[in-house]
């Protein structure tokens, strides 16, 4: 009698457990109200290879093409979708781990939906590929943008009489030499085109354009900068250690390069901006000994006063000051005409 009661209790416990299990399985995610392991007829301890074997057997059994009747075919399609969904979840280690977490933690209701849809909506493309393509696009835009700026600078210098006339003299000599050679006679348009081409070449060869409009080099693009980044970092570390040892500890006098570096830092200019300054201007800074901070502060004060004076004498600036005094910042009226 006692053993009979134990059997009845065990049976009831199994039914309650199964009922509870179906209750915490969530509709709309994973296998819905069904257990993915039960759908494939496997357990949580089943290996990945055995899960694949069970899936293939069921897929062969329920493949719609193997059923002829309309009712049987429809039923087979539904079963085929069920086992395919279960297999897609259990074949992926990370998704299977999320599913097992749901089985072990039924109370974390919202977390299960988050984990499920985060994986479903996450991009399938490798992040490294996206990063490489992005860097490549930026590098191409950067390179062609630099060429566009350089081309703008060359065209500008071609319009300045001082540079154009010098280049024109060289172009005329080369054009005459090409005409003296035997060959088909060129039209005026062709001669003009050749002349402009020579003028451009002469200006490119003789003009040392610096700063943001300098001739672009491959080494300046982002991809190359990233590749040589370890070398760049090593060089800067060496440079600063050398500076500290040579000028801070040993108290050696500054060279021309070091003096210009200090002046550039005081002026808060970038390397390209400072390179764009003329040699005469840089020499003037050296003559003023602007690498000495006291000299630089005094020099800057004088320059600021000169700038204020020139602005005070500028009519447009006076009008601007008058407007700001009357209307303030950000105000707009219809009486300003």
Describe the structure.
- With 337 residues, this protein is mainly α.
- It has 16 helices and no strands.
- The protein has helices spanning 2-24, 36-40, 48-62, 70-91, 93-104, 109-121, 127-159, 161-180, 188-206, 222-227, 229-249, 256-267, 271-275, 279-287, 293-312, 315-327.
- It is elongated.
- The longest helix has 33 residues, at 127-159.
- It starts with a helix and ends in a 10-residue tail after the last helix.
Q: What's the arrangement of secondary structure elements?
A:
Blueprint: H1 2-24, H2 36-40, H3 48-62, H4 70-91, H5 93-104, H6 109-121, H7 127-159, H8 161-180, H9 188-206, H10 222-227, H11 229-249, H12 256-267, H13 271-275, H14 279-287, H15 293-312, H16 315-327
Helix pairs in contact: 3-4, 5-6, 7-9, 8-9
Keywords, separated by commas or semicolons:
337 residues, mainly alpha
Q: Quick recap of the structure?
A:
The protein contains 16 helices and no strands. With 337 residues, the protein is mostly helical.
């Amino acid at each position: 009698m006692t053993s009979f009661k134990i059997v009845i209790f065990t049976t009831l416990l199994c039914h309650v457990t199964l009922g509870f299990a179906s209750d915490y399985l969530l509709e709309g995610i994973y296998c819905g109200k069904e257990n993915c392991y039960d759908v494939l007829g496997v357990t949580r301890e089943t290996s990945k290879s055995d899960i694949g074997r069970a899936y293939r057997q069921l897929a062969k059994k329920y493949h719609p093409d193997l059923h002829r009747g309309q009712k049987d075919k429809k039923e087979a399609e539904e079963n085929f979708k069920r086992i395919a969904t279960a297999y897609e979840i259990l074949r992926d280690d990370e998704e299977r781990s999320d599913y097992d977490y749901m089985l072990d933690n039924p109370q974390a209701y919202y977390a299960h939906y988050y984990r499920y849809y985060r994986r479903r909506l996450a991009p399938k493309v490798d992040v490294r590929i996206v990063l490489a393509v992005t860097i490549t696009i930026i590098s191409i835009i950067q390179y062609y943008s630099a060429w566009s700026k350089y081309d703008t600078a060359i065209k500008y210098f071609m319009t300045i009489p001082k540079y154009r006339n010098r280049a024109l003299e060289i172009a005329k000599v080369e054009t005459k030499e090409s005409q003296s050679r035997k060959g088909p006679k060129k039209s005026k348009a062709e001669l003009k085109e050749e002349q402009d081409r020579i003028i451009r070449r002469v200006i490119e060869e003789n003009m040392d354009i610096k700063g943001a409009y300098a001739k672009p080099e491959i080494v300046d693009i982002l991809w190359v900068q990233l590749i040589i980044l370890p070398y760049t970092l090593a060089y800067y570390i060496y440079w600063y250690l050398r500076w500290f040892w040579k000028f801070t500890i040993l108290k050696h006098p500054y060279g021309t390069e070091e003096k210009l570096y200090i002046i550039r830092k005081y002026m808060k200019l970038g390397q390209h901006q400072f390179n764009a300054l003329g040699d005469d201007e840089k020499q003037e800074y050296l003559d003023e000994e602007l690498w000495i901070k006291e000299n630089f502060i005094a020099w800057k004060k004088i320059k600021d006063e000169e700038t204020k004076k020139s602005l005070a004498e500028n009519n447009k600036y006076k009008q601007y000051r008058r407007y700001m005094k009357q209307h303030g910042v950000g105000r707009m009226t219809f009486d300003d005409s």
